[in-house]
Specification:
single chain; mainly beta; Methylamine Dehydrogenase, Chain H; five-stranded antiparallel beta sheet
Length: about 350
């Protein structure tokens, strides 16, 4: 008897938005990974400013920040077929100006960690067995400032990333990536002598990061650069490279770099530029990114982008032109080619793909 294996060709995705110009909350769509087509998104949860989303890696739970500039963390159960969201519960986030979060999971337990830009702090919450969010377990505030008196007058935690038993917090205000130990049994964070911070050039304004087994790539919002760190060598950057093509000046363009992502192959790196409104493509040579292409993002203010799980397509969320555009990724060179795929979404700020066992 012959057994036919059904292969999934479309993936569920969720889109987070700002809700002050027409959006009503979180939207869902399906993305065809064979043809690079994105369905018109539909609203699945009404809530204030769900600007960043994070999915549990193994369970049908979605978490989002909201109510900017004050903070609220919400947990949802999602239906894997329809994408419909059911609110599980919400917890107030200590501090203000939440901008990023990550779900941390291991055999020891699950947690959500949130970065607060406004108050320069980071908070951790346990995830209970039914997906609900427990009360805050730890709340740690950074200190310091940077030379940019407009943007770095105080700490501004802007990104949180989980690996093993550590949390990396990218702080734009103090030009540093701060590391914490995370105990997933209690969902508490603490400083550890084993976790050395990364030091950025004063005034760089680090925003987000991407990493592989050896190298860490930090995108710097204020000076439009990517700084490269070798885990095996130093807490200081090996090199910093511009996210703009030769001849373009970040200050003249009023450009701020935003998102960063590594290709699934590890051979290519991508960064979005707001102001230049472009996606920069880098080839990785010995850990150092070399700029090989700059492509218009298909709209205005590409606050966020991501690669689909296959690495064949890149989806750019253009916040101020209110669209999500799809680009094809050349698997040999990493370069991007615009497709005719673009969907309308009011103020898109984040897009995440639900886990799939395809």
């Amino acid at each position: 008897m012959t057994t036919t294996t059904h292969r999934t060709t479309s993936l569920r995705c969720f889109i987070g938005t700002y809700t002050h110009q027409g959006s009503r909350g979180i939207y869902t769509s399906r993305f065809d990974i064979e043809h690079g087509t994105l369905e018109s998104p539909t609203l699945v949860a009404e809530c204030d400013n769900p600007t960043f989303l994070a999915l549990h890696p193994a369970k049908p739970y979605l978490y989002t920040i909201g109510k900017f500039p004050t903070g609220m963390l919400r947990g949802f159960h999602y239906d894997e077929q329809s994408g419909n969201l059911e609110l599980l519960n919400e917890q107030e986030i200590p501090g203000h100006g939440p901008c990023h979060l990550t779900v941390c999971s291991s055999d020891a337990g699950d947690a959500v960690v949130v970065a607060n830009y406004g108050s320069g702090c980071v908070a951790s919450f346990p995830i209970l067995s039914d997906g609900r969010i427990g009360v805050v377990a730890s709340h740690l505030t950074h200190t310091g400032s940077g030379p940019n008196t407009t943007r770095q007058q105080a700490p501004h935690a802007h990104g949180v990333y989980f690996e093993g038993s550590t949390i990396a917090v990218v702080d734009l205000g103090i030009d540093r990536v701060v590391y914490y130990h995370l105990d997933l049994v209690t969902a508490t964070m603490s400083r550890s002598a084993d976790c050395a911070d990364l030091h950025l050039t004063p005034g760089a304004g680090p925003r987000h990061l991407a990493k592989d087994q050896r190298f860490i790539y930090v995108v710097n919002e204020l000076d439009s650069t990517v700084s490269v760190f070798d885990r095996q060598k130093s807490c200081d950057a090996l090199e910093s490279v511009s996210t703009l093509t030769d001849g373009k000046d970040a200050h003249e363009l009023d450009n701020t770099a935003a998102e960063i992502a590594l290709h699934t192959s590890g051979n290519f790196l991508y960064v979005s530029n707001r102001g230049d409104d472009s996606i920069a493509v880098f080839a990785i040579a010995g850990g150092i990114p070399v700029l090989i292409q700059s492509v218009p993002s298909g709209g205005n203010t590409p606050r966020f982008f991501c690669l689909d799980p296959t690495g064949r397509f890149l989806l750019a969320c253009n916040q101020n032109s209110e669209n999500v555009c799809v680009f094809a990724v050349n698997q040999a060179t990493g370069t991007l080619t615009p497709t005719d795929q673009s969907v309308k979404v009011s103020q898109p700020a984040c897009l995440v793909f639900a886990p799939s066992d395809q």
